[in-house]
Specification:
Layout (H helix, E strand, L loop, with lengths): L2 H6 L3 H20 L3 H14 L5 H15 L7 E5 L6 E5 L6 H6 L3 H16 L6 H5 L1 H10 L1 H14 L4 H10 L8 H21 L3 H14 L5 H7 L4 H13 L8 H4 L2 H8 L2
Helix pairs in contact: 2-3, 2-4, 3-4, 3-6, 6-9, 8-9, 9-10, 9-11, 9-12, 10-12, 11-12, 12-14, 14-16
Length: 272
């Protein structure tokens, strides 16, 4: 079973599997630059903890406590002397940027905050309710920093199978409340594009969700045509097929299909 399936399944056995998974190899993932997987699972566990009986709550708390103690990997360079069988390891201290020092230990807090946004959106009965939720953009920037917060937000928006359905359209619809300038947005999207190869290994839906995100931004004229073309990735042609099919079934988006995608591709898909 894939990680994303476990994150969707609310049965207590799925929670046990996630906890066992983190306990077994979580620290190794953290040290091998796959901390995004660890952060996503920890955020999920933290958000659902109170939904279960004491035994599962204790298991989650114990797992989260263990994960909080893991340290980021330290780069080691090995130098050999003239004796082939002897090795001397030289530990090179990890150099962190100021922003990383401030936020790296607060990754779970950012993800929990994004989970809160999703939860609030999920509880919205009227479209007007989302206007209030949009204020969370301001809070997120204030608490975590603009670039840090939106890097996390966009990564969650495309990689989380469940949250993406609400977070992607919400980000586009209320973009004017984000405080992001066009240049900053393009930089954020390029960062996201660059991380897709890694994300899609564990979260296959990341690619089509990313493609839909940039397509919606183009529809709303938030990004320019040349920016849109540059933000396309190598999977665009193949993965856009499911988006075309999805949009064609939507009264709201149906009229934009030919505006965003090549007419030949659209006709080929819709005629099948």
């Amino acid at each position: 079973m894939r990680i994303e399936q476990l994150l969707i399944d609310s049965h207590y056995e799925s929670v046990e599997v996630l906890c066992a998974f983190l306990t077994a190899i979580g620290e190794k993932l953290q040290k091998s630059s796959k901390e995004h997987v660890v952060n996503k699972i920890c955020s999920h566990l933290s958000a659902i903890k109170n939904n279960y009986e004491f035994r599962i709550q204790f298991l989650i708390e114990d797992t989260l406590e263990k994960s909080s103690k893991w340290k980021k990997a330290v780069s080691n360079t090995t130098t050999q002397n003239r004796f082939a069988f002897m090795e001397v390891e030289e530990v090179v201290p990890e150099v962190k940027k100021k922003e990383e020092i401030t936020f790296v230990d607060d990754n779970s807090k950012v993800l929990s905050f994004i989970s809160l946004i999703y939860s609030e959106l999920n509880d919205c009965y009227e479209e007007e309710d989302k206007v209030v939720v949009a204020d969370y953009f301001i809070r997120g920037v204030k608490e975590f920093g603009k670039q840090n917060f939106y890097n996390f937000f966009l990564s969650e928006a495309v990689s989380d199978f469940k949250k993406s359905k609400l977070l992607v359209p919400f980000f586009v619809e209320y973009f004017d409340r984000t405080g992001i300038e066009n240049k900053e947005l393009v930089e954020l999207l390029n960062n996201l594009k660059g991380s897709l190869k890694e994300l899609k290994r564990d979260f296959p839906k990341s690619v089509p969700n990313y493609i839909e995100l940039i397509c919606l931004l183009k529809v709303k004229k938030i990004i320019l045509n040349d920016q849109f073309e540059n933000l396309k990735n190598e999977d665009f042609q193949v993965k856009s097929k499911e988006i075309i099919t999805k949009w064609n079934k939507s009264e709201k988006l149906k009229g934009f299909v030919f505006e965003v995608f090549e007419p030949g591709l659209v006709n080929d898909i819709l005629q099948k």
